[in-house]
Amino acid sequence: MNGKRLLYDRNDTSQRHGRDGSKGVQRRSFLQKMGVAAAAFTTATNAVSATPSTRPVDSLESDSEAITIDYDQYTQPSEIYDVWTGDETTASFIDTPTTASSQALEMAVKEGDSWGTNAMYSLPENGYGQPTQAYQRIMVRLSDDWTMQPNDVCRIMAMGFNTEAGTAGSGVRGPPAGDNGWSSVICVTNREDPPAGTYRLATYTYHMDYDSGAGEFEVTNAAIPVGEWVSLESYVRMNTHEGGTANHDGVVRYWLDGELAFERENYRWTTTDGQAIEYVGPIVRYGGGEVAPQDQSFRYDEHEISVSTNAAR
Questions:
Q1: What is the pTM of this model?
Q2: How buried is 100 (Cβ within 10 angstroms: 0-12 exposed, 13-18 middle, 19+ buried)?
Q3: Basic and acidic residues composition bias: which ranges (predicted)?
Q4: Are 252 and 158 in contact (CB under 8 A)?
């Protein structure tokens, strides 16, 4: 990362910044910025309803920081994201397919490989510290030829990730102890018999109550189609803690095209204010132990982030 705050408000041309190094961030009300239609969805683990209290528009504080990232303003993903681990050359900008923009982010994985790479947005490096709540919206697309063998898994999006406090949030180094890292990531998977031409979404979380070196894997009923742009939205809120004890109130929710795909409200990640949400954003890691059956890629566009800190820790 080059330390720039590489953000602007699409609706305020005076705030735009580009390759010439100019930059700008506008603090806007989250309630004015975001919105998702209420819906109901059943997960593989429990039934959830997207009532007004669970919609992302009602989840963060009204004065939260809203961040819009415009890929058209950059030449390399590393100008925006921390790109590290695996094959960093697999992250690049492409001019087709895109949504409304001129270029999209492509994260490729090669036949016989597991990585991909991380291309996550560092909140501390961009002046936001480590907030306790984070909302994201991003357009995503599996490549037209995306294929997975039965039971394969591929991570695609970090809803919340902390590496600064330690390594217990990845690499089969869990479970977290409350002060040494954590993570919660959206995956695609060929488990639970997805409909033809689709793959299931799943949640992969390193948390304190899953007694395994690896994180807990929870498959949803939501299915993402191959070769189509869809909207992913996510919300994470850190658990509270008292006297070094973590409370069972950490929250993860995410939506596919406005429909609630997953909700869980009893995670424990931290026992201290010293770690919260360090990273959010794109990640492509195939497996487990399995590898990609062919060269293929995941695409991203229109990445928006909102963050705030809940005073009740």
A1: 0.83
A2: exposed
A3: 1-22
A4: no
